[in-house]
Write a structure and sequence with these properties.
The complex is a heterodimer of chains A (308) and B (329). Chain A contains 13 helices and 9 strands. Chain A has helices at residues 3-17, 20-27, 36-40, 50-63, 67-80, 92-101, 146-152, 155-174, 197-218, 249-260, 271-274, 279-282, 304-307, and strands at 104-107, 112-115, 133-143, 179-183, 187-192, 228-238, 266-270, 286-290, 293-299. In chain A, the strands form 2 sheets. In chain A, strands 4-5-3-6-7-9-8 form a 7-stranded mixed sheet, sandwiched between helices. A two-stranded antiparallel ribbon of chain A has the order 1-2. In chain A, strand 8 and strand 9 (293-299) form a beta hairpin. The longest helix of chain A is centred in the last third of the chain and has 22 residues, at 197-218. In chain B, a hairpin with a 2-residue loop joins strand 7 and strand 8. In chain B, helix 5 (184-202) packs across helix 6. The chains are: A alpha+beta (308), B alpha/beta (329). Chains A and B meet through helix 9 and helix 12 of A and helix 4 and helix 6 of B.
């Protein structure tokens, strides 16, 4: 079970599908200068038994943490062929099952192998690599006048109301494949990376604002409405496992937009990010010049003139 | 305004002279002097009390308690002491004194500062009082919380009986730009999808689609605080409508909605909705047809008057229709 079985299955798959020459070419998709003779210790003038070549390759890729890449390549080859030739891996299903046992799964939509998310959503969506840069859409969300509310109301009521508020944020964000990278009681940083991630960020923000009407009317335990602000910005950031330690101008701009350029009950989006929003969504936003910055805003509740 | 300060001093104390001299030029303060023995004679109307300590906290704390408990409003107490021990000061502060001054240090400035602080304290207490009023408002807000119905059973209603209900007429309206873009079959599918979404969205608010025809229908709310629940649903759905058309229906040209709500007694029948005639039903439909523009919600005064403060603010008075005041979102 587990790693050793996975290795055995991979060895079987490779040795059945490829000749040694083809296996070398296949392996070079992962390691450019792969030389199976050097790897197996067989002299250059000796032919290497298929099984030995496959076994050594699998062991080596495991050693250098490239097993996931190998499985991904096998899956892609089974779908699209390799060097114009079709290959069949008879035990592919078993490999995928065994990979699941080891905590990974193949996501067809993403065409990626991702770590399985059990109870909690993973900040890296199961595949982001530490130290690599990616594009994200960041949403900074904050409860307006938090310190005043904290001073004014009983701590338990604040805690409970904020907890319920967070749960509606989580629902709106995770249903659109977003993640909450940080949360500090009264707000945090929401991050979107997959599919049409800018649209997803905008839609999640609208969803949160809309749900807030129901929250304030039915669940808010404080003596007044909870009012929020949201700032959206798209940009790159170098991913780190400790997401709190990620430093990015794009994140800072999202926070700045939310804090300095957004009125209460409003979603603001930076000019640059606005260009990436689907035109049907764009119609809902109004261009505004606030504190010397051009931004696009949608205020809640949505008023009739906005929809026209 | 002159501030009255009640001074409780020891017999034969030089404190009254001292205070009078120091503050002779300052008419902001009016001192009422009482020695310990004359405690009962005090009018007890000063907002600030000065208590001259006998020689320590221990020997004087009973006098302190006796004085403060006699005032209808707890006064701000400043202790004048000859005891320079820090712990003595701490004990007085813990007891509730606002300040503790050493007799040897007394000066006009020191007194002014101490009285000022005492006044600030009094004013902040006034703020607290204002805060209490605010808390009353908060309580009203808390009482205005709308409860979502947990268990309700439409089968418990009998056919052809009159019930208290709130009716919500809703229509999805194709945007002018979108007319002609979609085929008839697509439009029918869109409206059917909208019906399904409305049905699902109304359920947590205790509402159900009573009847539906093509692009619109009638929702009925009966259980719980049905007027508030219907109005809250309308606000929620109005804001969510855009998400629905864009995200679920994948329409480039968004649809518009129209909603009207009225509340009162009306005849109920589970299925035979085609033959139901009630004033409530007719009025709700008429408001939507005659008064409601695209992306508007119209509610009658009957609904508005029942609304929780938490959602009433979203509606503004609009016009009269058949002698009834209409409010719009």
């Amino acid at each position: 079970m587990g790693i050793s079985r996975l290795k055995r299955l991979l060895t079987e798959a490779l040795s059945q599908a490829f000749t040694v020459d083809r296996l070398q070419l296949f392996g070079r998709e992962i390691i450019k200068n792969l030389d199976l003779h050097e790897l197996t210790g067989f002299p250059p003038n000796c032919s290497i038994p298929r099984k030995d070549a496959a076994n050594e390759l699998v062991e080596y890729l495991f050693e250098i943490n490239k097993t996931i890449q190998l499985i991904h390549l096998i899956i892609n080859t089974s779908q699209n062929g390799f060097k114009s030739e079709k290959y069949e891996f008879q035990n592919l299903k078993l490999i995928i099952n065994e990979m699941k046992e080891c905590g990974y799964e193949y996501n067809q939509n993403l065409n990626k192998i991702v770590k399985i998310e059990k109870n909690e959503k993973r900040n890296d969506w199961g595949f982001l690599e530490d130290g690599k840069s990616y594009n994200f859409c960041f949403v900074s969300v904050d409860i307006c006048g938090n310190s005043k509310l904290v001073r004014k109301y009983d701590g338990a009521k604040i805690k409970e109301s904020y907890k319920i508020f967070k749960s509606l944020v989580v629902k709106a964000v995770e249903s659109r494949n977003g993640r909450i990278w940080s949360w500090e009681g009264d707000g945090g940083l929401l991050v979107f990376h997959l599919d049409d991630f800018v649209d997803s960020a905008v839609l999640a923000s609208i969803d949160i604002m809309t749900s807030l009407i129901v929250f304030n009317s039915t669940m808010n335990l404080l003596g007044e409405d909870i009012i929020i602000r949201m700032g959206i910005n798209v940009g790159g950031a170098e991913y780190k496992k400790e997401v709190d330690s990620i430093i990015s101008d794009s994140i800072e701009l999202a926070k700045k937009i939310e804090k300095n350029h957004t009125t209460p009950q409003t979603v603001s989006i930076s000019k640059n990010s606005y260009q990436h929003v689907n035109s049907a969504l764009r119609n809902y936003f109004r261009e505004k010049e606030i504190n010397g910055m051009t931004i696009y805003q949608l205020s809640f509740p949505i008023k009739e003139e906005v929809c026209k | 305004m002159q501030i009255e300060i009640d001074v409780y001093h020891l017999a034969n104390s030089r404190l009254p002279d001292k205070l009078s001299k120091i503050t002779a030029s300052n008419r902001s303060w009016k001192f009422n002097f009482y020695d310990y023995d004359a405690l009962e004679k005090s009018d007890k109307k000063g907002r600030i009390v000065i208590l001259e300590e006998e020689d320590s906290y221990i020997s004087c704390v009973d006098v302190f308690d006796a004085i403060v408990t006699k005032y209808s409003i707890y006064p701000t107490v400043i202790i004048f002491t000859v005891n320079r021990e820090l712990y003595n000061v701490v004990r007085w502060m813990r007891r509730g004194a606002a300040d503790c001054l050493w007799m040897g240090d007394l000066s006009d400035q020191l007194l002014k500062n101490s009285f000022k602080s005492a006044l600030n304290y009094i004013e902040s207490k006034m703020d607290i009082k204002a805060g209490r009023d605010e808390r009353k408002k908060d309580n009203l807000y808390e009482e205005d919380k709308i409860e979502l119905p947990q268990n309700y059973d439409w089968d418990s209603l009998k056919d052809s009986e009159n019930y208290e209900m709130t009716l919500l007429s809703i229509s999805a309206v194709m945007n002018k730009d979108a007319v002609g873009i979609y085929s008839k079959a697509t439009v029918e599918k869109i409206y059917e999808q909208i019906r399904i979404e409305i049905s699902a969205a109304a359920a947590p608010f205790g509402g159900k689609i009573w009847f539906w025809n093509n692009n619109g229908g009638m929702l009925i709310f009966h259980f719980g605080d049905n007027a508030n629940l219907a109005a809250l649903f309308s606000l929620y759905f109005a804001n969510k409508f855009f998400l629905l058309t864009y995200e679920k229906l994948k329409l480039d040209k968004p649809l518009n909605y129209k909603m009207s709500i009225d509340s009162g007694k009306g005849l109920y029948h589970k299925t035979d909705t085609g033959h139901i005639t009630s004033e409530l039903l007719n009025f709700t439909v008429h408001i939507q047809h005659k008064l409601t523009s695209d992306n508007e919600i119209c509610i009658t005064e009957r609904v508005y008057s029942k609304l929780s403060g938490r959602i009433r603010k979203y509606f503004t008075e609009s016009e009269k229709f058949q002698d009834a005041l209409i409010y719009k979102y």
